[in-house]
Design brief:
Number of helices: 4
Radius of gyration: 16 Å
Strand order of the largest sheet: 2-1-3-5
Length: about 140
Amino acid sequence: MHDIKTFEGTLNNVGGRYALVVARFNSFVVEALLAGAVDTLVRHGVARDDIEIIRVPGAWELPVAVTKILAKRDYDAVIALGAVIRGGTAHFEYVAGEAAKGIAAVQNDTGVPVAFGVPNVESTAQPSPRSCPKAVKKAAQ
């Protein structure tokens, strides 16, 4: 394995600007994701002045919002945050699937990295492990 070239990024900021596009719906999960994302960026050297938070209604709106934001502003990366919770209808599948496909398309079309932070959980009683700030900190270390 020593003779194989490996290319790998670092976890230190090199002067980038970051947009966090945050869904308001299911805020009891999403706000913890936001706190963890900001904390992680700052701990890895990103200045708070280089982080902008843009709020949208829900996960469904994330792809179009990220598209419009990247058309107007220059960011080195975007973090899309939301949460989709299964209910008694097929709505869950539509929202979760389209949010994922839409974010992937934006990233592929623009060439700007877009992190997909939209956990899908079965119920409000099952919060995502990603929404726990301590778990986010532990995973980032």
